[in-house]
Design a protein that fits this description.
- It is a single chain.
- By secondary structure, the chain is an all-alpha fold.
- The protein has one domain.
- Helix content is 30%, strand content 0%.
- The chain has 2 helices and no strands.
């Protein structure tokens, strides 16, 4: 649970804003239903995966010069 929470918060550090249905950018397949950015995670259903939409967003994030 602690590792999943850390991964979730790192998602926010890349620029993913909000949680659940109001998340920006939106969830997208694959793994849309199991994205670590979902807000209702519990120890028995917490995943360590980002959905396809968030993976693409993170891949395009630059850590240099806030771009």
């Amino acid at each position: 649970m602690l590792v999943g929470t850390a991964i979730h918060e790192l998602g926010h550090a890349t620029g993913i804003q909000n949680d659940g249905a109001t998340i920006d950018p939106a969830h997208a397949d694959p793994d849309k239903a199991n994205c670590v950015m979902l807000p209702d995670a519990q120890p028995n259903n917490y995943t360590l995966k980002f959905c396809g939409g968030h993976i693409n967003f993170i891949k395009s994030t630059s850590w240099l010069n806030n771009q």
